[in-house]
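Handoff note, outgoing to incoming analyst
You'll be picking up this chain. Sequence as last confirmed:
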Amino acid sequence: MKKIILAAVCTTLMATATAAAAPSINGSTGLINTPSADVLREGQFSLGYYNTKEGGVGIFNTNIAPNLEIGVAGFRYDNESNKNYLNAKFSLLPETVLSPGFAVGVEDAAGETDRSYFAVASKGLPLGFRIHAGVGNGRYDGLFAGIEKTINPVSILTGNSTFPATTLIAEYDGRDMNYGARMSIIPGLKLDAGWRHDKTYVGVTFTN
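Most recent structure output, in case you need it:
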């Protein structure tokens, strides 16, 4: 009986860990402004659009080989020239119930603005928590880290109202603290909103 209960808890934890996977503002699958160790699986793609105080960001990611995710992020900021980041992330070790996942990657591989290499680990914890920690150069300027707290893994019906599955996020991106919430509207479709670099942002993403 104990084994059955443990298996159920572990399955729930792993499902919760992957439920919030979505592209970050800089493109790679991750949190607000930092990547996680998650990599799109074979046949998966994600796309999204974020509106920030600086302007809009369009994102597309896909899996092109086992454990390899590539993508582009197009920045259309109001007072800057257009920028397009080519990103890639490779999963070294998948996350398991007992061990964290590890991945390495690069943002802005073409060096259009600030080519940044990184390594990151992610691990789901009990009670809906998940932590991320990494190190990188470029815009990361050393260490970065984040924590997620899933406050309800499934939508909650209250009378005629529905409260979507929601994850709260806090992260340090190497320079600033960012805070946000990610809500699952329907399977794959997520709405993000919060504060990034002391300014509000909102975004919508889809992962198949």
